[in-house]
Amino acid sequence: MSFQKSSDTLRAKLHLSNMPVSKVAVLGVSVLAVLLLAVGASRVFASGESESFSLAGDELQNSDHSDLSEVGQDAPSDQTVEPEATVVVHVSGEVVTPGVYRVVEGSRVDDAIELAGGFTENAAQDSLNLARVVADGEQIIVSSVEESQSADSAARGSAAGGKVNINTASLEELDELPGVGESTAQKIIDDREQNGPFLSCEDLKRVSGIGDKKYEELAELISVG
Q: In whole angstroms, what is the distance from residue 162 CA to residue 176 CA?
């Protein structure tokens, strides 16, 4: 088909039969230019949007890595905390709540008594060395005022019948007792200083190293007042 016929056909379809061919051509070129501009603009917009998303994604990724790096640097390292060593003591006598207590190793007698609720009103607080470090498995006996006064009175008296007063005897006097020896004699002195005076001769068995058999050998030779 010739260009002239094609133009006539297009003019007829668009109801432009009365418009000169030159104007139709100009109109066609204008329409084509508008279409080309529209296509170009859409491509530019799409390219710019894609680049913007790409930049935003890179920034987000870099930011995430930076945050993770900072978190990793600031996070404290795990440190194992060693538990404190403890010892067990038995607190009895004139305290609010007598019983067995677990205290930190190196604690003093005063700490153990505080765990037991403190002294009662009738406690002879001066009968103990409160600053002494406690030992595992020991018994801390808090005497009453009456018990302390009775022991002091007995200690001031002389030993009855030539017997050795285990509350007042010196290391040398205790050492002379059969089967005692210097080491056990020192334990007897340490015990009465730490736990108060012996209220009966049988209390001597609370000293480490003096059992029932050894006590029987000493029973007729000792006294508490």
A: 13
Are the C-beta atoms of residues 127 and 142 closer than 8 Å to each other? Answer: yes
Instruction: Give the mean pLDDT of the chain.
Output: 76
CA angle 137, 167, 92 (to 5 degrees): 35
Do 182 and 171 form a contact (C-beta atoms < 8 A)? Answer: yes
Q: Identify each DSSP E strand in the chain by its residue range.
A: 86-93, 99-104, 139-142, 164-165, 222-223
Whether 160 contacts 135, CB under 8 Å:
no
Question: Using CA atoms, how far apart are residues 44 and 25, in angstroms rounded to an integer?
Answer: 29
Q: Could you tell me which residues come within 8 angstroms of residue 179 by beta carbon, excluding any fewer than 6 positions away?
A: 214, 217, 218
Q: Are 132 and 190 in contact (CB under 8 A)?
A: no
pLDDT, one tens digit per residue, over 161-218 is 578 999 999 988 998 888 888 889 999 999 999 988 999 999 999 998 888 888 888 9
- The pLDDT score that the predictor gives to residue 12 is 57
DSSP-assigned beta bridge partners for residue 63: none
If you write DSSP's letter for every residue of 98-109 in order, what string do you get?
-EEEEEETT-BH
**Collapsing DSSP states into helix, strand and coil, what is residue 83?**
coil
How confident is the model over 107-122, as a mean pLDDT?
95
Alpha-carbon distance of 121 to 61, in angstroms, equals: 73
